[in-house]
Amino acid sequence: MTNPGLIEVEVAVGDRSYPTLVGDGARHALADVIPERARRVAVVTQAAIGIEVDPGIDHRVFVIGEGEQAKSLSTIEDLCRQFVSWGLTRGDAVVAVGGGLVTDVAGFAASVYHRGVPVVYVSTTLLGQIDAAIGGKTGVNLPEGKNLVGAFWQPHAVLCDTEVLATLPPRELGSGMGELAKYHFLGGGNLDRLDLCERVAACVRIKGEVVAADEREGGIRAILNYGHTLAHALEIDGAFDLRHGEAVAIGLVYAAELGHRLGRIDETRVAEHRRVVAAYDLAATVPAGSDPDHIIELFSRDKKAIDGVTFVLDGPNGVEPVLVEDEAVLRAALAAVTNNEGIS
């Protein structure tokens, strides 16, 4: 398909391949990507999103709740029951309009309703456009943990409307920039030299290539977690007011410091990590008051001590999973991002 002014990136997953359209006003191309046989579209969104779309055929808007509490099996049941009441068939489609929470929920509902109906994502956040909306992972939480119930269900198409990013609160946009910074080290090079549309498209292209090589997370897809080990520990700790991307930015610098101490990268490469994070106006240090012992404990949670901790680290062969068994090295790298000492 051709949409003037938009960048099209194909996510090549065999017979489930789909287009991702990136650019200002991409949401207006929705009618062009709805499956031909669909006669009705269920539009799933949140009240706070406030973005209207027109799929070009009969449609109804279904509003889900705000916050992580809405990312639940009860929400999936409510949606599916509403779909039934309205008369949505397996030949129709679902459209998700919102950030990662909305695409996760609507995508999972689409994957199980009538054992699977097509879903189109209109992603409205930077974090969603370069991450959550690409790759086919859907899911909801249980009281026991996040994303424990879900399915791999590739969308029929994804629309990344960069125009709506201007409406995001500064910290929400900054969170997306933290995730975007990761792609500099996954083959993106100097992404900060591109305009925003080109940056988003480049990230989609990189993630799409990884997903195409490892759709079900059996291997290489682990590199998408670069910077996330420390990030997840900071998020689980809960003592810090950090958005996901803000935590990832700190995690990227930590991973670089760790990689240097293991002899995988040199000082110049560490400095490049710090440069990229600074270019997006993001912090590169752990917030004051952090407890190194607690962070190390969180690294090793649910793992046997003798197994060490698996990190995704940069190196001569690029970014790859690495088992780190030396706790002293973990602590030294953590000190470097806690006190902003740089390489020691």
Structural summary, described in words:
This protein is of the alpha/beta class and 344 residues long. It has 2 domains: 7-213, Rossmann fold; 226-338, Dehydroquinate synthase-like - alpha domain (Dehydroquinate synthase-like, alpha domain). The protein contains 11 helices and 11 strands. The chain has helices at 30-33, 73-86, 100-112, 126-132, 170-188, 196-213, 228-237, 244-261, 267-279, 292-299, 327-338; strands spanning 7-11, 18-23, 40-46, 58-64, 93-98, 119-123, 137-142, 145-152, 157-161, 309-313, 320-324. Strands 1-2-9-6-5-3-4 form a 7-stranded mixed β-sheet. A two-stranded antiparallel sheet has the order 7-8. A hairpin with a 6-residue loop joins β10 and β11. Residues 302-306 and 340-344 have low confidence and may be disordered.
- Helical segment count: 11
Q: Count the strands?
A: 11
Q: Sheet bearing the most strands, described?
A: 7 strands, mixed
Helix content: 25-40%
What fraction of residues sit in β-strands? 15-25%
Mean pLDDT: 92
Give the topology string: H per helix, E per strand.
EEHEEHEHEHEEEHHHHHHEEH
Strand order in space, largest sheet: 1-2-9-6-5-3-4
